[in-house]
Amino acid sequence: MIGVIDAGTTTVKLAIYDERMLVALKKEPVIKYNPKPGFVEFDAEDLARKCQMFADMAIDEYNVEAIAITNQRTTAVLWDGKTGRAVFNALGWQDMRGNALSEEMNRDATIRMARTAGMIARGVVKLLPTLKNKRRVKWLITLSRLSIRPNHTSVKLCWMLRELGEKKEKYELKAGTVDSWIVYRLTGEHLTDYSNAAATGLYDSYYMRWSEPILEIVGADEEMLPKTLESDRIFGEYRNVPITGVIADQSASLYALGCWEKGELKVTNGTGTFVDLNVGEEPEASTGGLLPLIAWKLKSETRYMMEGMLFYSGSAVEKLKEIGIYDDVAKTSEMAFKSRNEDMLLIPSFTGLATPYYVSMPGLLYGISNAMTREDIAKALLESLAFRIAEIVDIMKKEFPVELKRIRCDGEMSSNDFFLQRIADVTGIPVERGAILSGTSFGAHLVAGRAIGKWNRDFCMPFSDVFERKEDIRDKYEKWKKLLNIAMKIKL
Amino acid sequence: MIGVIDAGTTTVKLAIYDERMLVALKKEPVIKYNPKPGFVEFDAEDLARKCQMFADMAIDEYNVEAIAITNQRTTAVLWDGKTGRAVFNALGWQDMRGNALSEEMNRDATIRMARTAGMIARGVVKLLPTLKNKRRVKWLITLSRLSIRPNHTSVKLCWMLRELGEKKEKYELKAGTVDSWIVYRLTGEHLTDYSNAAATGLYDSYYMRWSEPILEIVGADEEMLPKTLESDRIFGEYRNVPITGVIADQSASLYALGCWEKGELKVTNGTGTFVDLNVGEEPEASTGGLLPLIAWKLKSETRYMMEGMLFYSGSAVEKLKEIGIYDDVAKTSEMAFKSRNEDMLLIPSFTGLATPYYVSMPGLLYGISNAMTREDIAKALLESLAFRIAEIVDIMKKEFPVELKRIRCDGEMSSNDFFLQRIADVTGIPVERGAILSGTSFGAHLVAGRAIGKWNRDFCMPFSDVFERKEDIRDKYEKWKKLLNIAMKIKL
């Protein structure tokens, strides 16, 4: 049996797998603080305690052979190596306090120079397209859009270090993401895996090392940061049980959904939505706003992915429940199928839109009339989220000329038939629904199984449904994009 | 005692007044048909029957001295003088079947010539501003914006006459508005009053006669139409009780609210909202989209009014209840007062906007975010309706340089404190709430009382509350107008 500790944004979960079957699932809510609007903090000590409790439970009650760890990305923890205790609350990935700070960091001469170099590289590639396949050129092209964003670990770390100021000297500071914090507390080792490291904004995924220029801007040094390991290495032992299968949430899902090779695409629909395309064994660059990440690095293989995201998807469906449009999110699929209204459009910017528009703007509901119904609004919302996904898929198709044969989905909100149907309708690509919606923990368990020699890459989750295009809604999608463009320009 | 038959859009009511106090109120629902989207028909026979039943009840149970009639305007009835029976269902004022027909009528050479003459007059007035006070010039200026609209009685009548075609010869056709239909069925007389006639689009309010050029375009002749009387004349007798106090609904409200002289302004908030300004003893012209109407013509006085309207106000509040934002419209005032959100704006175009934008466009909710609440949406709606009223008041202030000392309100939706407060906040004009929200029937009863010598113009309804400006929200109003302008230009 393998136990997976899944440290998410809302809960910490323990999932126990026996021969690839889920046999037990436990949840504990995460203690979160919102001291100011836009601030999101986690109680790092509470998080460590709950993870340790689950590790004990996995060993005592299920006699597991290995413990895997998967987690929310980019959340930053800073702790003291002398006491092993966190110096601050962890700053959550959704925490936006670094807004001004990230702008300041982006004005740094190094960043500006890097962007210039990137722009030059893009110009050169236009003249000599074959250069595009060189890793160094891809790296340069990525630099052309280099932008430190407040959700990056780098900004959070910078904020904490500045806050400490002179007091820094008192501690033997260690920084890391949630996985490395848990590993540290269970084993005393300061380690992370490549998939987590790549998401921090501190890591150079092209050359597989912590980025010196960025560390300098942040004011951190490499000794503060964890050593990076393959996800299927042994990260240490806790009560004689190996810790392995350490992997970031979206990477774990991509793996679980069997998106192992170049051109495979998955969409995880949870609180937000993450669209990840496996781009193969070489890192790629995006000029269209996609995030280049390491999908996974295992002992025997490395895969890169490009990511696009929606900040709000499941949360948006919850939000319309809160204002009274329906009393149960499970009803929204049936409601939306009932609606015959084709004129209502929603711009689902509940906290901004994310990929590729990293702008702050309010959302908008268009098409209000005396004929509108609750059903129409539910449909407008679900369609708008499908349209947002289609935008990201369009960028992927444009930047990476691989044939997208299918879109594989997991995440709680993928239980919504109307939503998945609409993704198929707008993209024209068949949509497969994973039979296990929590691909994250399933993927971590698969990687952990490989680590301890139980299997190779020969098994992914089964799929319960396939949604084929029933109706071509590209015309409506074009209308919606037009509206989005208008909405983005509204300045009152 | 005086009995008022109030033939509204949803119900026919009988209100019995004794010494200016309401002593009884009965309601009967109106039978309405919607054979196609946008079609609104009334069963004219059913309407006549219910009014006669109420007249009998007024005489038998309350021994009334007079029966007054007030009614929805512009609804068209066509009947046969030989049998006294309606030839068609009545075409309701909201009926939009005449859309194409009104466009055709507007292309008529006479209409185009009239507009040209009007434009010339406007040009001349710019050079010789004193000319503006001449009635003929005002008439010409009004012609510059002359436009036959599908809600006009003229279009409905034209539609019915065309539909009859050759069969016209079979009948002794009589046409009229709801008041004249009721009077005809109770007394056999074919009469209407000036306030109803002026609203038909068939009447020349400047020269107090049916308009020959429009009648020609419609294909009707003057013999088909009722004779026009002052509202306080005796329109005949029913079972020896005089019928008098025949007056259109908005005129009756204006009278009831004591807006007897030039510069007095009232707002009736029902299903829709009607903003009426008493412009005094001479008709006026508007180039800003206001409708020139006869407020009333009584034996001893004539008053004109300019009108602006919102198609949807109370209905909009009902609509958001229907989609789940609240379960009781009575809660919306309290909800709106609770909201602290200043960023949510609504464009309340549920069936178009009406004055001064006679365009068809969908409504829009702007400012959707993860922080929005039901309270915020209720506030955005009520504010948007106040802003729409402010737009009309602004036109009135611009076109008629009289000091607006107060805005008097009646109609069911005027019970909403937040709404009335916001009208005061945005316009800066104190808002008085009538103690009797059904000003329509109260006004008709006051006119009927004058007709039978019970009193002169010395009494209007009492006022229960005054709302003074508490907060200047002109900045927000300007933002909202900017959004409205953007919304009107959206073409998807």
UniProtKB/TrEMBL annotation, chains A, B:
<feature type="domain" description="Carbohydrate kinase FGGY N-terminal">
    <location>
        <begin position="1"/>
        <end position="111"/>
    </location>
</feature>
<feature type="domain" description="Carbohydrate kinase FGGY N-terminal">
    <location>
        <begin position="130"/>
        <end position="240"/>
    </location>
</feature>
<keyword id="KW-0808">Transferase</keyword>
<dbReference type="Pfam" id="PF02782">
    <property type="entry name" value="FGGY_C"/>
</dbReference>
<dbReference type="GO" id="GO:0046167">
    <property type="term" value="P:glycerol-3-phosphate biosynthetic process"/>
</dbReference>
<keyword id="KW-0418">Kinase</keyword>
<feature type="domain" description="Carbohydrate kinase FGGY C-terminal">
    <location>
        <begin position="266"/>
        <end position="451"/>
    </location>
</feature>
<dbReference type="InterPro" id="IPR018485">
    <property type="entry name" value="FGGY_C"/>
</dbReference>
<dbReference type="GO" id="GO:0006641">
    <property type="term" value="P:triglyceride metabolic process"/>
</dbReference>
<dbReference type="InterPro" id="IPR018483">
    <property type="entry name" value="Carb_kinase_FGGY_CS"/>
</dbReference>
<dbReference type="InterPro" id="IPR000577">
    <property type="entry name" value="Carb_kinase_FGGY"/>
</dbReference>
<comment type="similarity">
    <text>Belongs to the FGGY kinase family.</text>
</comment>
<dbReference type="Pfam" id="PF00370">
    <property type="entry name" value="FGGY_N"/>
</dbReference>
<dbReference type="GO" id="GO:0016301">
    <property type="term" value="F:kinase activity"/>
</dbReference>
<dbReference type="GO" id="GO:0006071">
    <property type="term" value="P:glycerol metabolic process"/>
</dbReference>
<protein>
    <recommendedName>
        <fullName>Glycerol kinase</fullName>
    </recommendedName>
</protein>
<dbReference type="InterPro" id="IPR018484">
    <property type="entry name" value="FGGY_N"/>
</dbReference>
<dbReference type="InterPro" id="IPR043129">
    <property type="entry name" value="ATPase_NBD"/>
</dbReference>
<dbReference type="GO" id="GO:0016773">
    <property type="term" value="F:phosphotransferase activity, alcohol group as acceptor"/>
</dbReference>
